[in-house]
Write a structure and sequence with these properties.
Blueprint lengths: L9 H7 L20 H15 L11 E3 L24 E4 L9 E4 L1 H4 L4 E6 L5 H9 L17 E6 L1 H4 L12
Parallel strand pairs: 1-4, 4-5
Antiparallel strand pairs: 2-3
Length: 175
């Protein structure tokens, strides 16, 4: 399963990642950028439902996510109404606070159905927000902190710079 992210083309993903692992081509699903966002979101959700027949919400084995300096993940931004979306698995966003303004995103119900969510976070510019996500106890948690798979787990792969403000214990890989 594949969703192209900003700056990463599906052709690059196929060449550099998917060609190295065994995934049938019909299981690689890309968003159609030539469609209006509402239609593209509906088509993408429809295709996911075809690949996961019988599941009300598709269950991914793994979703790989990042975070923005504001704590957003996917195109789920702080205080945005899409954080409250409960019925759609894929949603359009036409008023993104970050360019481009029109996007398509997985919703929290889809992300929280995954068996494993893996966040990859690098750089000191993410250190403060990472601390807030992992150590904060806000009544209004940042979007990335809301990714809590119901029957799965969350893992964080972070570099030293991103971890620099954490006060909690972190396991360090020995290389």
């Amino acid at each position: 399963m594949c969703e192209a992210t900003s700056g990463v083309s599906v052709s690059r993903l196929k060449k550099n990642l998917l060609s190295k692992i065994s995934i049938p081509n019909n299981h690689v699903v890309a968003i159609n950028p030539s469609l209006p966002v509402e239609e593209a979101a509906d088509k993408y959700a429809e295709r996911l439902r075809e690949l996961f027949p019988g599941d009300n919400i598709p269950v991914f084995d793994l979703v790989i996510l990042g975070i923005g300096p504001d704590g957003h993940t996917c195109s789920l931004f702080p205080d945005h109404p899409l954080l409250q979306e409960q019925s759609k698995i894929i949603a359009p966003i036409s008023d993104s606070p970050k360019p481009p303004p029109k996007r398509i995103t997985m919703t929290l119900p889809l992300l929280n159905a995954a068996r494993c969510a893996l966040f990859v976070v690098t750089g000191e510019s993410k250190a403060a927000v990472l601390k807030d996500i992992l150590e904060g106890h806000s009544e209004n948690p940042l979007p990335a902190a809301r990714v809590q798979p119901v029957k799965g787990e969350v893992h964080w792969l972070i570099d030293e710079a991103a971890a620099s403000k954490l006060t909690i214990k972190v396991d360090r890989a020995s290389l």
